[in-house]
């Protein structure tokens, strides 16, 4: 800390972090791990529950990935950190209030929206984003009441070849028994138990060498109890020149796994996952009731530049559900500079453009890329800039105080980390009674009834 720094143990640097997902908690972790600038951190989330996409985005059958919450708990239990859940920026607190009472603000709200296909029929009943479907089966309060009747669905088209596309396809292909040991929301497990799904089509507009999924997630499709895997040999062909040019080991292993799928013996099981490459959806077709009945796709060829161009040859697939998984997109926060095209907060390396004392981290900073751990370095890079500004005296002076802010917060139904621990224990106990890791509470009103006494 330089001699000019105004922050001391009696008057620490006060930082608000907006968002309690990985990038938000990693930002807090970086702030309290350093010892040069005494710091206090308040982490806000519009939901009562922390952890963001770890709770509501990670596939429910990937419990080992969710074990990162143990490290997050350590940060949230630190005396210098407060979790303030059920507080929404723009509804309960304004940007101006944050800038009045905190020396710095880090926006780490992720990317909660999705990109559209831009084809006819996209708004038919039964055409939704994979983002919504993931939120539904993970028990997000915004999606828990959605009526997704899978009993009348036999065919599903999943548009996209990233890990989210694999997640939703795998959940649809698994049996209720396979999912029973996951932390999938109870309403979703009940609906999947009565699912009529027989065919799941995972579709990418380019070839298998351009797919974005990881090998571990791809291999899981060869281990499903009740689903075969099918491919079309001509769609997974890779020329010798193209294969020789591949330097990414993940791509090489993916090609090996896909070719191995082609050699699997067909089993007498009720479901089939079809991996389709070099196809682009051109129209979603509806029935007389305005519900999805089919999807029309055009077959593609790869161009010399690695793109895809249509061949003029079309095919219709009978599906009653279309899930688009072509990318997440950030949404603007009230008053915060935003790049609509990129779907990110306008920033330079993490400093919000034109916003002295404002910073950003995670997907809302750089776009939706990387895995959970990627956000740790991203957050640390942003925090390093913040600390440079704090040590050099570059942060603008704030007129507010912690006492004045706490008086305002006392008027709100704030949900603390101690409250969350009560809810967490309740969910685990309820799940344990049924032989499951947890039984998620999915409605906001019910969440708020579980509090520290």
Automatic annotation (TrEMBL):
Residues 14-180 form the FAD/NAD(P)-binding domain. The keyword NADP applies. InterPro entries: FAD/NAD-bd_sf, FAD/NAD-binding_dom, Ferredox_Rdtase, Ferredox_Rdtase_adrenod. The keyword Flavoprotein applies. Its cofactor is FAD. Keywords: FAD, Flavoprotein, NADP, Oxidoreductase. PANTHER family: GLUTAMATE SYNTHASE 1 [NADH], CHLOROPLASTIC-LIKE (PTHR48467:SF1). Belongs to the ferredoxin--NADP reductase type 1 family. This is NADP oxidoreductase.
